[in-house]
Structure formats: structure tokens, C-alpha cells
Amino acid sequence: MNVGIVGLGLIGGSMAKSIKARTAHTVWGVDLDGETMTMARMCGAIDAPLTEENLPQCDLILVAIRPGAAIEWVRRHADGIAKSAILVDLCGVKRVVVEGIAPIAEQHGFAYIGGHPMAGSEKTGYESSTDHLLENAYYIITPTAASSDQDVERLVDVANTIGSIPIVLDYHYHDQVTAAISHLPHIVASSLVNLVKDSDGKDGMMKRLAAGGFKDITRIASSSPEMWEQICMTNRQNLAEMLRRYIASLSETLAQIEHANGQAIYQLFDSSRTYRSSFSEKSKGALTPDYSFTVDIVDEVGSISTLSVILASKGISIRNIGINHNREHGEGALRISFYDKDSMEAAWAQLAKYHYELIKNS
Q: Which of 93, 78, 97, 81 is nearest to 144 (CA)?
């Protein structure tokens, strides 16, 4: 196939790299940033720029830009899209985009399907994209009035080819689900970070002692503010409903604490633990999983370099190493993160041979 990709950021760039790594398809891409285009050409993620001339040759067009921009791009380029092509948007919200693009696609005679690869990172941009970001990630596919069952099956095949897990959903239902499990958590994380910022003393002790659990549940607060502002505004009805429910649940918890109802607080933690433990660990969410564990090592000269040499001897790449100054949740002294699950598991096995004390992160 000839594949055109509009927007070579984290998702668009990862789609390009993944398709090139796993297929013989020709990939043409376009991005407003000239440096991104240069990097994509140099590393082989795209074969050439997507232009007005080769757009009509595309069998599959992936639009990986923000919702409003995606609708506008399709409106401006609809005349150049072949009637045999399938156009897919990769936006994190679907109703606004589907209802904006579907009429254009019907008018011009090409197929259009909503798509949402549920993978990502707290980092943005082409430089953070990888050819494996979408592996084992759910790829939500939302049929539209401008698509047939055959069109949907073709996109399912594409998702399978790049190692994703396709799930076909109604686009209204998609927005309800993502409001709860993706959009609301970003608001909660950002609100919690701002609460600590506003509550911290002049000595910055809260910030200094924040570690372990606090960093884990607020990691997504580092995501792009521009992107999340648009996502929240385009899915505001579903998000507002989930926020009302969440605020009600917090108010109930506050009342139980004020009335010293220990049994109710126990039930809060017990029920959430049970439900959380039932989650699958095999698939990715909207953010890249944190492939890390901690190691309890003695603070002495050479201890970190020795550990690094042990892993390097097996070709295991380390993404990041950090010291845990706050270990209230049982974390080890050294937190090591890796690029993927296989590297993490190989590192665990290698260090276990040398009798390091290893602790899994929650």
C-alpha cells in the first residue's frame, strides 16, 4: 500500500516507524515542523514527503493531528483523496471529529473510520516516537456512516500488522470510556500536583519528599497541556459527568474521615485493591508503561557503575537511573527504568543471579 501520514508527532511518528519496520508499504508523511521532516527522512520513517501530487495515490491516510486541525485538513484536502482510499483520524476523542469528517467523506466518496491507538508517553514529539510504541496497545476503531464492514476489516488488519490489539467500538461509547480511564486521570493528576504546589511551605518540603507513590500517580501530569486542553474541551460533556461522580465520591470519603468511620475507609481501599488487581498487565494504556524496578544497594563508590556493567554485559539498555530518597512504600535505594518489558525482565533475571535485593514497583 501507499500510506500517507499527516502529523509526525509521537503517535504519527510511531505509526510511520512501525509500518516501515513491519511491512513493505511506502510511507509518505508531512509535518509542519521542518526539523521533524528532516529526522523522519533521515531515519527512514518516511520514504518521501506527502504532497498534493502523491496524496491521490494513497490507499490509507492517517491523520495524526489535533481534533480541530484534523477536521480542517480533511476539508481542505478532500478533493485530492482517492475514492478507493480509507482515511483514519488518530485523535483521542471521537464524536466531534467523526461528526466533522464523516459528512465530508460521504460527499467526496472516500471511506472514513475513526481510530485511536491507546498508547503514548508523558513526552511528546517525533523524537519520542518508536517503532514499538503501539505493540500490545489497544487500537480503538470506530465505524462511521462513511465506512463499510469491509473498510473496518481492512483497518483491523492494519492494527494487527503493527502488533496492536484492535477493538471496534461505537464512537459515542468510546468517548464515555476514555473520559473515565484517560481524560479524568489527567485532570486528577494535574490537580493533585497543583494542590501540593499550593500547599507546600516556603522550604519546599512537600516537593522534596515527593517520591514513590506520588510520582507514579502524577506522572501523566507532565503531558502536553495544549493537547489535553483540546481533548478536555472536545469531550467536555462526558468528562463533566465523570468529574461530578468523582467529586461526589471524594465528598463521601471526606465525610467518612470526618466521622472517623474506619470501616468505610477500609472498604474504600479493599474494593479498589480488588478491582485494580483484576486489571490486565498485558496491554498498554494511553501512556507508555513504566518498565522499572528498584534495587536495594549499599551507597558506596562504584556500586552504580558495577550494576551498570552487569547489565551492559548482557546488552541490556537502561533508560534511566534515579536515587530514591523517600522509601516509605518499600522501594529500593536505586530505581532503574527500561525501554520495554523484555529488557526489564532480562535485567531482573541478571541482577538476581548476583543476589541483588530487587523490589517490584506497583
A: 97
3-state SS track over 45-93: CCCEECCCCCHHHCCEEEECCCHHHHHHHHHHHHHHCCCCCEEEECCCC
- The letter for the amino acid at 322 is G
**Helices and strands (H, E) in the chain, number of each type:** 14, 12
**pLDDT value at residue 82:** 98
Distance CA 15, CA 117 (A): 9
Q: Are 169 and 140 in contact (CB under 8 A)?
A: yes
Pull the grid cell for residue 258: 470526618
User: Nearest to residue 216, comparing CAs of 195, 247, 193, 246?
Assistant: 193
Do 311 and 331 form a contact (C-beta atoms < 8 A)? Answer: no
Query: What are the helix (H) ranges across 60-183?
Result: 67-77, 95-108, 149-161, 171-178
Q: Take residue 62 and report the three cell numbers written for it.
A: 492517517
Task: Please report the pLDDT score of residue 237 as a whole number.
Answer: 94
- Tally of CA atoms within 13 A in the half-sphere of 313 that contains its CB: 8
Looking at the whole model, is its pTM more than 0.85?
no
Amino acid at 76: R
The CA angle 108-59-162, to the nearest 5 degrees, is 130
From CA 285, how far away is CA 331, in angstroms rounded? 24
Contact 7, 67 (CB under 8 A): no
Bridge partners of 117, per DSSP, are 139
Residue 113: enclosing H or E segment and its boundaries? Answer: strand 111-117
| 221 and 189 Cβ atoms separated by less than 8 Å | yes
Pairwise CA distance, residues 287 & 117, whole Å: 11
Pairwise CA distance, residues 276 & 279, whole Å: 6
Q: Give pLDDT tens digits for 128-185.
A: 888 888 888 899 999 999 999 999 999 999 999 998 999 999 999 999 999 998 899 9
From the list 110, 123, 60, the residue with the least C-alpha distance to 90 is 60
